[in-house]
Design goal:
Layout lengths: L3 H7 L4 H29 L4 H29 L1 H18 L5 H13 L4 H12 L5 H29 L1 H22 L6 H7 L13 H30 L6 H20 L7 H12 L8 H7 L1 H5 L1 H15 L5 H30 L2 H24 L21
Length: about 400
């Protein structure tokens, strides 16, 4: 395994700190849904439907807020957005234990809209700090940090919420406040010196000049990826339950995350780029054979190819988006990408779950993998049919000083 690409990226000024802070800042995001689920169920004695409604409202708000916050970062800088969203997020999660269910549901949408823009901020900063020819490695590191957060944080939220659901919400509030403070203190650049020079005196480009076939294809692919991931997770649990092995679900899901970590590490060290749509198609097709498994260990073995392609698919999309749009609108574009990921994650599990209820667990893998593959094909079709002249490829540049843009 060639570690040179990682050494080069981590030697760039500020990148190591950004990766560490970015990974830590994902923990409250990863813990939120489980903490809220347990609070509504145990603390407020609500139903799973009521818990799902609050999570859905948070998700819808976050999907809209991601794009809005990204555009605001482009216009006013990072620190003002972090200050407002950091305070709003901490206030909501601190006061959530005191709210009745109707008030909680009403505030959830607003809390989602004002959620701390962790994902877009880190990806936008990496695009500013890392030369284009090294971003694949940087985004692979970022994807691995995300995997670690989503392995550890939900389990921690369940452990704390099982004892005291209100304590879990306070923990989320504390972690969110710390994340906002760390990002505010770090204040990573969202544009580099060369980009700022190019933007000087120029009007912000209209959306129609960059929200074209290739960019729309990446948004569709992001939805497809998280539909496949969310639907695949539900299908694994349902399949194991159908064969009386539900207790092994945690093992299989943990291995899936581990395979993704390994895949992200390998992909980040490659010397060549692979198109995100090919990676997505491979991941989705690799989910289909899982419909034939009947034991947890067989599922874990068959899961290796799909798992190995998870982190590479998502990191390749971030890399592609960073190169498809002008630097002046990168925040908005990354916000749109984050919104697409959020939407796919929100609709994937319910849609696949409904199919499982009507047709059985094996069909969940068909729906998750097949749906993602169809969206990958739709993205390829958009790129093929797009006749608009593509902008010049962003040239590779040497590492250079970056400016504070807040």
């Amino acid at each position: 395994m060639n570690l040179t690409p990682y050494k080069r990226v981590l030697s760039l000024p500020g990148v190591t700190a950004l990766i560490i802070v970015g990974s830590a800042a994902r923990f409250p995001v990863a813990a939120m849904n489980m903490a809220m689920l347990f609070h509504v169920r145990e603390g407020l004695h609500g139903s799973y439907l009521q818990a799902g409604l609050v999570s859905a409202l948070l998700t819808v708000g976050a999907a809209v807020g991601s794009t809005v916050n990204g555009r605001l970062i482009d216009r006013v800088g990072l620190r003002p957005v972090l200050a407002v969203t950091g305070v709003a997020t901490a206030v909501f999660w601190t006061t959530a234990p005191l709210m009745s269910y109707p008030v909680l549901a009403a505030c959830a949408l607003l809390a989602g809209l004002a959620a701390l823009p962790v994902f877009g901020t880190i990806r936008q900063a990496l695009a500013a700090m890392v030369p284009p020819d090294q971003r694949r490695t940087a985004y692979s590191l970022d994807a691995m940090g995300v995997e670690i957060a989503f392995i550890v944080a939900p389990a921690g939220a369940i452990f704390i919420a099982s004892a005291n659901s209100e304590a879990a919400l306070y923990c989320v509030a504390g972690l969110a406040a710390m994340a906002a403070l760390m990002l505010f203190r770090l204040n990573p650049p969202t544009k580099n010196a060369e980009e700022l020079a190019e933007m000087a005196g120029q009007a912000r480009p209209a959306r129609r000049t960059w929200l074209r076939g290739p960019m729309v294809a990446m948004l569709i692919a992001a939805v497809g990826a998280t539909i496949a991931l969310g639907g695949g997770e539900v299908s694994m649990v349902a399949m194991l339950k159908a064969h009386g092995q539900e207790s092994q679900s945690a093992i299989v899901l943990g291995l899936w995350a581990a395979f993704s970590l390994i895949g992200g590490f390998v992909y980040g060290g490659l010397n060549r780029e692979v198109h995100p749509l090919l990676l997505l198609l491979g991941m989705c097709v690799a989910l289909l054979p899982l419909a034939l498994t009947t034991t947890w260990w067989a599922m874990a073995l068959v899961l290796i190819p799909a798992g190995m392609l998870c982190a590479p698919s998502l990191s390749a999309m971030s890399d592609k988006v960073s190169k498809l749009v002008p630097a002046s609108v990168r925040g908005e574009a990354m916000g749109m990408h984050g919104s697409a990921i959020t939407v796919g994650g929100a609709i994937g599990a319910p849609i696949v779950g409904a199919i499982i209820d009507h047709l059985g667990a094996p069909w969940g893998f068909v729906a998750a993998g097949g749906g993602g593959a169809l969206l990958a094909f739709a993205g390829w079709l958009l790129i093929t049919l797009d006749r608009t002249p593509a902008p010049a490829e962003e040239p590779a540049r040497a590492a250079e000083p970056v400016l504070d843009t807040a």
